[in-house]
Structures are given as structure tokens and as C-alpha cells.
Predict the structure.
Amino acid sequence: MEKVITNTNFEEALAVPGLLVIDFWATWCGPCRMLSPIVDELAAEFEGRATIAKCNVDDCEDIAMRFGVRNIPTLVFVKDGEVVDRTVGVQSKQDLAAKIQLYI
């Protein structure tokens, strides 16, 4: 199951070793709603090997700005605290799984 990143737990989530994938989204975003079930499936499939998290840009504007998120959905791939990749827009489950596999 994916985590929810908030302003309160962000630093803690970023400090976890390994791969962290942050899904930046908003409730009003149609493409975000299309990507959400894919992110949920990936979170279940990679549980224990990667942390998949969601961050609502309306609730966490500072976090989105810190990562330079200008469009949503954006997935940011963070490995051991460093940004290693990102995707913008709806991606296929296969493409995202391959990208996660590359970094774990």
C-alpha cells in the first residue's frame, strides 16, 4: 500500500534508504485519477522493495515546489535521498514498473 506524504512526515519519508517514488497529484486532476490505480498496483507489487507514496500538491505546495513540480501527475524517483528520475503525465504500468526495477 502506498504512503501518503504530508508536510508533517515528508522529511521522515525522504530519510528512508532505498527507492522512494512520489506521485504528485490533485483531486481535480483527471490524468491523476487515471494514474492512481496504476500507482496503487505498483505499491502493492513493489512492497518491501520500494516505497511508493502520494503527495497532494494542493495540501503540500512547498514539497511540490522543492521538487520543481509544475505539471501533474508527476512521479519523482528518489534513491537514498537524491532525485534520480521523474515522469510527467500518465505512463503505462509496464513503463513505470521497468523504471522502478531499474532503481531498486
